[in-house]
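ok so i was messing around last nite and threw this chain in just to see what happens. nothing serious, just curious
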Amino acid sequence: MRIALVHALRHSPPPIEAAFREAWPEAVLMNLLDDSLSADLSRDGRLTEAMTQRFLTLARYAAGTGAEGILFSCSAFGPCIEACARDLAPIPVLKPNEAAIEEVVGHGKRIGLLATFAGTIASMPSEFPPGVEVVPCLAEGAMAALDAGDAERHDRLVEQAAPALRDCDAILLGQFSLARAAPMVARATGRPVVTTPGSAVRKLRRLLQG
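result:
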């Protein structure tokens, strides 16, 4: 079974591939990466119709290769991914965080959202169900550190930002690339921490295999 993974950040493939190895090793993966998507969103400051069309092009290409499911790893582009899901139905098309959101709200109504990309803080809270208070926290400089190849500095900046979310019921890490820092966030806050890759893989497998 072929699964297409579509990325807007070059740090995203390793954590989702690791999650597949653990939870669904039989799946055959293909990766599509366009890191200009995140750069253009940062430049424009909002999602545009042109951006939605670019996502539709990527999703249709993936479906045309025979992919039976599509998982986007770019959390700042929810409305664009929703357009792809409508366009390609009944092929399962998942936003990166929808399964994790379903999981994290089981811990309570006040959820910390820790991210390293400002676009995620802007767009993702609207994906939570009504009645949930989302407390955003941006780990300033962490994404730049990862871009520069300094994973240790990335993790340290995330750990330093995390205590701002100590009064939340649970914390959701808003980028796939943040999964590596989950133990540090848990130690810094004492709160349950939910990462996105594993929950996304498990949901996609349920949808396709029952």
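not much to say yet. The longest helix spans residues 49-64.
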